[in-house]
Amino acid sequence: MERANRTLLTEFILTGIPYPLQLKTFLFAFFLLIYILTQLGNLLILITVLADPQLHARPMYVFLGVLSVIDMGISSVIVPRFTMNFVLGVTPIPFGGCVAQLYFYHFLGSTQCFLYTLMAYDRYLAICWPLRYPVLMTAKLSTLLVAGAWVAGSFHGALQAVLTFRLPYCGPNHVDYFFCDIPAVLRLACADTTGNELVTFVDIGVVVASCFSLILLSYIQIIRAILRIRTADGRRRAFSTCGAHVTVVTVYYVPCAFIYMRPEANSPLDGAAALFPTAITPFLNPLIYTLRNQEVKMALKRMLRGPRTKSEI
Questions:
Q1: Please, are residues 199 and 160 in contact by the beta-carbon 8 Å criterion?
Q2: Is 89 exposed, middle or buried (0-12, 13-18, 19+ CB in 10 A)?
Q3: How far is it, in rounded angstroms, from Cα 261 to Cα 170?
Q4: Cβ distance 72 to 282 under 8 Å?
Q5: Ranges of each domain in the chain
Q6: How many CA atoms lie within 13 A of 96 on its CB side?
Q7: What is the pLDDT of residues 250-273, one digit of tens each?
Q8: Cis bond before residue 172 (omega within 30° of 0)
Q9: pTM score, two decimals?
Q10: What is the pLDDT of residue 306?
């Protein structure tokens, strides 16, 4: 009978985040606008990188185009359902839908983590070894690195999804969160979750700590190289190429560390922190990279201006 009861759970109910009812319409409009702008902004970055020969031939902007794809994916996995809850109320998500949401969130999130590391390594080579950079970071190597990030991210997402949903779930089915994530779902398991929590903490901890350490080491070397530049204009240009990346890495890693790197991840602030990697960061990335990157701004101007006619040339 116990085994039969455990098979009855076919859906979860995402309770969302607490909010004043009088703000329901405002929050729906706000997150809907955030989602639309996220998709449009990242799509614009992707089209710009693909359309501009000066950008898509450089690994740095290939990584930026891939980052835009990931941001659109993470936002689409989480934000539409979360936003519709403000209108439709709390609605159930099928068991398979919950599995898919958890998998794709961790697949895309870990791929993004690896990609940030590759972007830091690319900046390290460009600034510390400028003359050898075209030889060290070739188009073939950048493609292989991006492919490796996708494969590693897929493996990480599959591992987390399998470990989480191999456990029996026999009720209750109310997930005290706005999407299916590991800490919130594990609290509903009808079995001991100590092993899962330990593996999750170690696995995500290794990914986050190793990526962040490599990024930190890269930027230590970058800062040392920049400080050796004699001209103020040269130092300013070198810092400007790294400023956008440092900003998005900070916005990404701090909330993730808060959510997953604590022994007991059950805080009312978890939901607010999770809004950053799922909704806020994907929205901010196009703004940060376009406002702080002169080459992207110039490419956008060239694309919006269209091809020049012979008379203009």
A1: no
A2: exposed
A3: 28
A4: yes
A5: 11-304
A6: 0
A7: 888 888 877 776 655 556 667 778
A8: yes
A9: 0.88
A10: 67
pLDDT in tens, 213-260: 899 899 888 888 888 877 777 677 667 667 777 878 888 888 887 777
Whose tokens are 């001991």? That residue is 192
What contacts 285, CB < 8 A, 6 or more positions away?
A: 41, 42, 45, 67, 68, 71, 248
CB 13 within 8 A of CB 175: yes
Residue among 12, 208, 201, 191 nearest 101 (CA): 12
| DSSP conformation letters of 11-58 | EEEE------GGGHHHHHHHHHHHHHHHHHHHHHHHHHHHH-HHHHTS
Token duo for residue 257: 């560390």
Mean pLDDT of 125-139: 89
* Neighbouring C-beta atoms of residue 304, cutoff 10 Å: 9
Out of 3.40.190.10, 1.20.1070.10, 3.40.50.2020, 3.40.50.2300, the CATH code matching 11-304 is 1.20.1070.10
* CA 183 remoteness from chain centre: 18
CB 42 within 8 A of CB 289: no
| Token pair in block for residue 242 | 């790294």
Contacts of 258 (CB under 8 A, 6+ apart): 269, 270, 273
Q: Name the DSSP class of 93.
A: E
Name the residue among 292, 212, 293, 274 with its Cα closest to residue 75.
274
